[in-house]
# Entry
Amino acid sequence: SQTIHQWPATLVQPVGSPLSLECTVEGTSNPNLYWYRQAAGRGLQLLFYSVGIGQISSEVPQNLSASRPQDRQFILSSKKLLLSDSGFYLCAWSPPSGLNEKLFFGSGTQLSVL
Amino acid sequence: AQSVTQLGSHVSVSEGALVLLRCNYSSSVPPYLFWYVQYPNQGLQLLLKYTSAATLVKGINGFEAEFKKSETSFHLTKPSAHMSDAAEYFCAVTGGATNKLIFGTGTLLAVQP
# Structure
């Protein structure tokens, strides 16, 4: 069966510090991978998605970047965090074949930038 | 471009009462629509999805939703609320050549005893 791991679960970082959130998927090959952010009082916003190694699409201009160094690994990064980067970050995956398949979400990372 | 609007960020019902969570969508292509639920301190789970088959979709835990093209709506209902239904519910839309889900802002459902 497929599983998705996301860590850390919680993170408190000072403004200006770097960020690295990691997500890995097991039990499937060539998944589509996604990073979403859920800010307090707001909905889920798609940040990045990837259909393959090294292929990253950015949905909104921001202070964050994403990388996919391996087929089942998706990393969310920042060189210098801003206060506005605080939020709940969710990694997700979907099967590579077929369109509009449902997403499978990780358990999320609560990021607080102070 | 696609979007969803969820009316009411907070909904409170009594245990045993009808649950109605509203979602309206906008899409330039035939939409696929989803409802996700997020229980406290957990990730998101799929409740149900509409993918152009039957307009009335039944999901888990007794929830169902009806796709109404004329009203551009996909409201979520449950005949009788249970305390365990307390959670945040997200409506989402996707369509076209990508698999990107666009989420609404969420509705927090409280169930009173």
Observations:
- Chain A touches chain B at residues 32, 34, 36, 41-46, 49, 59, 90, 92, 94, 99-103, 105-108 (CB under 8 Å).
